[in-house]
TrEMBL record:
PANTHER family the UniProt entry points to: RIBOKINASE (PTHR10584:SF166), SUGAR KINASE (PTHR10584)
GO terms, molecular function: ATP binding; metal ion binding; ribokinase activity
Residues reported in the UniProt entry to bind ATP: N191, T227, L228, G229, E230, G231, G232, G259, D260
NCBIfam families: D_ribokin_bact
GO annotation, biological process: D-ribose catabolic process
Keywords: ATP-binding, Carbohydrate metabolism, Cytoplasm, Kinase, Magnesium, Metal-binding, Nucleotide-binding, Potassium, Transferase
Chain's gene name: rbsK_2
Subunit details: Homodimer.
Protein name in the entry: Ribokinase
Cofactor note: Requires a divalent cation, most likely magnesium in vivo, as an electrophilic catalyst to aid phosphoryl group transfer. It is the chelate of the metal and the nucleotide that is the actual substrate.
First-tier enzyme category under EC: transferase
UniProt cofactor(s): Mg(2+)
UniProt keyword annotation of Protein biosynthesis present: no
Length: 321
């Protein structure tokens, strides 16, 4: 675990914790059908919590804000954060369960399909952010997503902006958003599906991603990062457009959590002072390692593992024409 790391840069993350219930099988069952699975595992998950674990293992000082229930899954959450050296601001909601996620993993490809029930974290409000304003003000980077209510995410971005903190918005799962949220985002990190949902631009390659990113820049985003899975990640802003190839670190075992790993790693790198392109490479390398391991939060690598990948010869990032 990461408790012995030398911490460098503070990241505050607002999001949800869920306990992942992961089933592996050769294919998805049809409606009304029962099939035999090959494996089952239970472990910590949730986009926000996964990002917090990734950032903590990458060397950041992490504060994570959420809500949990007073139940066994809540105990798993607290034990996870303590083991990772994460400072938890987790309100306990009586009478509401801690969140859970059903994850199907295809044995043949490692690809996944997920159902998330946010539970207690789904009751989060803007007041939860107001309660941690001092934490945000003292941070270098603030991160949020859309698994918790939009009002809480928006308030987090507003508070971070007010205090001059770098904002990273992971718009997942994709939801309809008012245009006034985009100027609050120094960085927005959708995958291809989410970028298409936000912009209406179908994405099949990096050039499509650039066109979608232009739509988001026009709405006021500072810089857009479109994660492209095996295609790497595109950083697109008014001043640069850089495609960083994916890092292939071994056989793909499970892709669930890779996007969370990227966002957490990117935030940790920004928090310690890396420039955007270096942070992009760091996030890609972290995600490249995570897909070679099962689980979401448990798949996140340690800082020295990511650095070893980055120190190996790799294809240089290529500017788009």
């Amino acid at each position: 675990m990461s408790t012995s790391l030398q911490r460098n840069g503070r990241v505050v993350i607002l999001g949800i914790y869920v306990t992942d219930l992961t089933f592996r099988a050769g294919r998805m069952p049809l409606i009304g059908e029962t099939i035999a699975g090959t494996a089952f595992a239970m472990g910590p998950g949730g986009k926000g919590s996964n990002q917090a674990v990734a950032a903590a293992r990458a060397g950041a000082e992490v504060v994570f804000c959420t809500r949990i229930g007073n139940d066994a899954f809540g105990e798993i959450a607290r034990a996870t954060w303590a083991a990772e050296g994460i400072t938890a601001r987790a309100s306990v909601v009586e009478g509401v369960s801690t969140g859970a996620a059903h994850i199907f993993v295809d044995d043949n490809t490692g690809m996944n399909a997920i159902i998330v029930a946010s539970g207690a974290a789904g009751t989060m409000e803007a007041a939860d952010v107001d309660a941690i304003e001092a934490d945000i003000a003292a941070a270098r980077v603030f991160v949020t997503q859309l698994e918790q209510p939009l009002a809480a995410a928006r308030r987090g971005l507003e508070v971070a902006r007010r205090h001059g903190v770098i904002t990273v918005f992971n718009p997942a799962p994709a939801l309809p958003l008012d245009d006034d949220i985009f100027p609050l985002c120094d960085y927005i990190t959708p995958n291809e599906t989410e970028a298409t949902a936000l912009t209406g631009v179908p994405i099949a390659n990096a050039d499509d991603a650039r066109r979608a990113a232009d739509v988001l820049l026009a709405k006021g985003v500072g810089a857009v990062i479109v994660t492209l899975g095996e295609g790497g990640a595109l950083l697109h802003s008014a001043s640069q457009s850089i495609l960083v190839p994916a890092y292939h670190c071994g056989r793909v075992v499970e892709t669930a959590g890779a996007g969370d790993g990227f966002t957490g790693g990117f935030a940790a790198a920004l928090a310690r002072g890396d420039d955007a392109v270096s942070a992009l490479r760091f996030g890609c390398a972290l995600a490249g390692i995570s897909v070679t391991r099962p689980g979401t939060a448990p798949s996140m690598p340690m800082l020295d593992e990511v650095n070893r990948v980055l120190n190996q010869p790799a294809e240089a990032a290529s500017p788009l024409s």
